[in-house]
Amino acid sequence: MSGTIGRGHWMIGALRRAAVLAACLMVPAAAAAAPKLDVVLLANGDRTTCEIKKLQLGELTISTDPFDTVKVHWGQVIGVTSPREFEVTSRVGDRYYGSLRQSAKPAELVVVASGLAIATLKLEDVTSLVPIGGSLWNRMDGNLDVGFTFAQANLETHWTLNAGASYRSRIWLVNTSIASQLTAREDADKTSRNTLSASGNRLFDNWFAAILGQVQQNEELDLDLRTVAGGGIGRIFSQSNHRWISGYAGLVYTREQFANEPLHNLAELALGGEIDFFTPGTNDLRLTNTVVTYYSEGRQRLEAQSAWRHEFLKDFYWSLNGIESFDSDPPDAGKRNDFSMSLSIGWKF
Fold first, then answer.
1. Burial class (CB in 10 A: 0-12, 13-18, 19+), 8
2. How far apart are CA 131 and CA 227, in angstroms?
3. Same-domain check for residues 58 and 189
4. 155 by DSSP, 3-state: which?
5. Distance between CA 228 and CA 333 in Å, rounded?
C-alpha cells in the first residue's frame, strides 16, 4: 500500500505543478491597446465605444481603455457595430465571417462581407463573436478553484483542486480539465484521487469528430493508474446564450493497473455528453454537468462531474462540486463506486 500511496502523492504533486504551470502560461503579456472602433448599445440607453474581445457563454467582453475590461450580459445588448472582421456563430451552428452593422430593426445584427450583407441575425440568436486574428487568449475560457475543509474530531483535512481551459478556433474546440483531491486523517493513511482529461473536437457545423484522452488515479478504489485514449463522433444539440447540450459516441482503448493486480488492457464503447446552463438575466450562476459511460463485455463504468458556480465578485466565484466514479466489476473485494462533494473558491478567465 505504501507504494500506491507514494505513486498517488507523486501524481497529485505532478498534476498541481501542471495546473500552476498552465495558469502561468495562460497569463497574457501586456500589449498595446487596440483602437476603439466598435460600438455597443445597451438596453438602458448607454452607447459605448470600445474594443469587442469576444462573446461567449452569454457574456460579452469589451475593453474601454488599456486597463479596463468589462463584461456585459448579452441580454442587455440591443445593438453592435464594428468595421473589423468577426467570426459570428448562431444558435443553430451556422458561422459567418464579416464586419458588423446595425440592422434597421431593433435587436438585429447584419454581417457584411465584401460590402454585401450576407446574414441578418437576431441578437438573441447570436451565441459567439470572436475577432478574426484575435489573440489566443481571446479565444480561451478557463477556471481554477481550490477548496479546503478541516474536521477537528478526527483531524481530517480535505484539499480539492479543479481547473479547466477551453480553446475555440474556426474549426476546433479543445477542452482540458484537472480534478484533484487529497484527504488526510490522523488515524488513517492519506488518500488521493486525480483525473486529467483532454478532448479535441473538429467542428462541422453542429456535428464534430472527437479525440479523447484521460489519465486517472484513485486510491479509494485501489486504482494505481488508468489511461484512456480514443475517438468518436458527436453532435451539438443546443447552443444558446442560456445553455449548451452536446453528446458523442466512440471507441477507446483502456489500460489500467489496480493495486496488486496484473495490468489490464481492453477496448470499450464510450458514450458521453455535456449539459451546461447559464443564468438567463445575468452570468452570476452556471451549472455544468459532464458524464461518460464505458461499456465492455460484462462491465460498465461511469465517470460524472457536476459543478454549480455562483459569481460573487468580478471573475471570482463559489463552486459546489460533485464527482462520481462507478465500476460494475471491480477487482476482488474492491469498491464499486467513489462519490465526493466539495466547496471551493475560484477564478475564471
1. buried
2. 37
3. no
4. coil
5. 24
pTM of the model: 0.78
Query: Which domain does 207 fall in, by range?
Result: 139-348
Grid cell, residue 136, equals: 489566443
**Which cell numbers hold the place of 80?**
453592435
H or E element at residue 75: none
Query: What number of other Cβ atoms are within 10 A of residue 102's Cβ?
Result: 16
Closest CA to 73 of 282, 298, 337, 330: 282
DSSP 8-state assignment for residue 139: G
Compute CA distances 202 → 44, 96, 210, whole Å. Answer: 39, 17, 6
pLDDT at 35: 65
Give the CATH number of the domain where residue 316 resides: 2.40.160
The radius of gyration of the chain from alpha carbons, rounded to an integer in Å, stands at 23
Cα–Cα distance for residue pair 321/163, rounded to 1 Å: 12
Say yes or no: 334 and 198 in one domain: yes
- Spatial distance between the Cα atoms of 296 and 307, rounded to a whole number of angstroms: 28
Q: Quick one: pLDDT at residue 140?
A: 82
pLDDT tens profile 49-78 = 999 988 988 889 898 876 578 888 898 999
Distance separating alpha carbons of residues 230 and 208, to the nearest angstrom? 14
Domain count, the chain: 2
22 in a domain, yes or no?
no
Q: Which residues pair with 326 in a beta bridge?
A: 302, 337
What residues of the chain score a pLDDT lower than 50?
1-12, 14-16, 18-33
Main-chain phi, psi angles of 344, to 5 degrees: -140, 170
Q: Would you say residue 24 lies in a domain?
A: no
Residue 27 lies inside a defined structural domain of this protein: no
